[in-house]
Design brief:
Layout (H helix, E strand, L loop, with lengths): L1 E5 L4 H12 L3 E6 L6 H7 L3 E4 L12 E4 L8 H9 L3 E3 H10 L3 E6 L4 H14 L5 E3 L11 E2 L5 E5 L4 E3 L2 E4 L8 E4 L13 H13 L6 E5 L3 H8 L6 E4 L5 E5 L6 E6 L2 E7 L5 H16 L4 H9 L9 E6 L2 E6 L4 H15 L4 E5 L4 H4 L7 H4 L5 E5 L8 H5 L6 E4 L2 H11 L5 E5 L7 H9 L1
Parallel strand pairs: 1-2, 1-4, 2-3, 4-5, 6-9, 6-12, 7-9, 12-13, 13-14, 19-23, 20-21, 20-23, 21-22
Antiparallel strand pairs: 7-8, 10-11, 15-16, 16-17, 18-19
Helix pairs in contact: 1-2, 5-8, 5-9, 6-7, 8-9, 14-15
Family: Belongs to the MurCDEF family. Mpl subfamily.
GO molecular function: UDP-N-acetylmuramate-L-alanyl-gamma-D-glutamyl-meso-2,6-diaminoheptanedioate ligase activity
Protein name: UDP-N-acetylmuramate--L-alanyl-gamma-D-glutamyl-meso-2,6-diaminoheptandioate ligase
Length: 449
């Protein structure tokens, strides 16, 4: 079958293409921006990519067109599909029909930590010999691919609350019908499609409605929004994590790199790993609960976590130049920025910490999170903010109240000059963006050389 994917270079759609190819289909695709790392992953798989959305790419007609949620009415390829009556489907629907049918789906949902937690869970199952399939919105370093079918009934999916397609405004995760569901946390995000937090809570409850009564819902005790979701109605056993939860962690190091795990008050073992931050300790507890649900004993799962290598672009050390360490991180929400910087601060102690932040997500561009930005960086010693000309709101005025010395720059060159003026050997520089940031990481490293 010939499947053509519109919007193929997104992390979800690119992963879908890998699975379709593995199923034996002829897969092609197009995107407005064909660029690494997804473009290189797809080309390595022998998947033909077209730049742009000219309708000619749909002639001869494929058997089905999978349309990504970044495309809307007015797009020339979308209009051609509709006018010609070509069969089309959303990515999540295709995944549900052709990959997830009949499998034990373990879904990881939440505002933050989906990619890291789904990577942890896939790796823990792999470590236990369960050879799971997975689809993750990033590249776990333990696997080096973002998706695979797997050899067993188990399938781990990063379950996103973003909408499915222009013709299906339900959250993607409503399609997945998990048996095991991690609800990691829940805050307001995606201001481009959700008016407020209750609208997102409603979508999370749609997910809860689909989980069987023999399944399992896992959530932390510290999230009022998730408590409200469960109180709307839950027909599934629940396990809780964190403070007062059934799964608890006792920190052995302040940065979260070593901690003991307790289940219902009974010691299960000690995680000793390369990760830092209270948020990753929370991710680990949810992972252990989900793994136990499919039969992995906690001691074996803890061994797996101790060998976990994180995900590309999640506090990934990308360079060390003259004693200056540069990290690449995906954080794009005030809570994620704060928890990530806190974890690093606890690891590096009093060493100088410079954060370089691009407010790039749709919610950031709309200014939905701007009130949380000044306080999100309190663990840094100096912050450089990127305010491109098209940002649409006054970033400098917003961060003027920050307790941390700040500089707002409107170009990569200005950012590099500012970091070079501030940095000295022994410093740590974290570059935070949910995009490529114009290759700033490499340019800064080259300039520091």
């Amino acid at each position: 079958m010939h499947i053509h994917i519109l919007g193929i270079c997104g992390t979800f759609m690119g992963s879908l293409a890998v699975l379709a190819k593995e199923l034996g289909h002829h897969v092609t695709g197009s995107d407005a921006n064909v660029y690494p790392p997804m473009s290189t992953q797809l080309q390595a798989q022998g998947i033909e990519l077209t730049q742009g959305y000219d309708p000619s790419q749909l002639d001869p007609a494929p058997d089905v067109v999978v349309i990504g949620n970044a495309l809307s009415r007015g797009n020339p390829a979308v209009e051609y599909v509709l006018n010609k009556g070509l069969p089309y489907v959303s990515g999540p629907q295709w995944l549900a029909d052709h990959v997830l049918q009949g499998r034990w789906v373990l879904a990881v949902a939440g505002t933050h930590g989906k990619t890291t937690t789904s990577s942890m869970l896939a790796w823990v199952l792999e470590h236990a010999g369960m050879a799971p399939g997975f689809l993750i919105g990033g590249v776990p370093q333990n696997f080096a691919v973002s998706a695979r079918l797997g050899d067993t009934p188990f399938f781990v999916v990063e379950a996103d609350e973003y909408d499915s397609a222009f013709f299906d405004k339900r959250s993607k995760f409503v399609h997945y019908r998990p048996r095991t569901a991690i609800l990691n946390n829940l805050e307001f995000d995606h201001a481009d499609i959700f008016p407020d937090l209750p609208a997102i809570e409603r979508q999370f409850h749609h997910l809860v409605r689909t989980i069987p009564s023999e399944g399992l819902v896992i959530h932390p005790t510290t999230e009022p929004a998730l408590q409200r979701v469960i109180e709307m109605g839950c027909w599934t056993p629940v396990q809780t994590t964190g403070v007062d939860g059934q799964w608890q962690a006792r920190l052995l190091s302040e940065d979260g790199s070593r901690f003991e795990v307790l289940f219902e008050g009974v010691m299960q073992g000690t995680v000793d790993w390369d990760m830092t931050g209270q948020h990753n300790v929370a991710n680990a507890l949810a992972t252990l609960a989900a793994a136990r649900h499919v039969g992995v004993v906690p001691s074996m799962a803890i061994d797996g976590l101790s060998a976990f290598k994180s995900v590309k672009r999640r506090m990934e050390k990308v360079a060390e130049v003259h004693g200056i360490t540069i990290y690449d991180d995906f954080a794009h929400h005030p809570t994620a920025i704060a928890t990530t910087l806190d974890g690093l601060r606890k690891r590096i102690g009093d060493a100088p910490l410079i954060a370089v932040i691009e407010p790039r997500s749709n919610s950031m561009k709309l200014g939905a999170h701007r009130d949380g930005l000044p306080q999100s960086v309190v663990q840094a010693d100096y912050v450089v903010w990127y305010a491109p000309a098209n940002l649409g709101w006054d970033l400098a005025a917003t961060v003027a109240s920050s307790p941390v010395p700040t500089k707002v720059c409107d170009s990569l060159e200005a950012i590099i000059a500012e970091v070079k003026a501030q940095v000295k050997p022994g410093a740590h520089v974290v570059i935070m963006s949910n995009g490529g940031f114009g290759g700033l990481h490499g340019k800064l490293a080259d300039s520091l050389q």
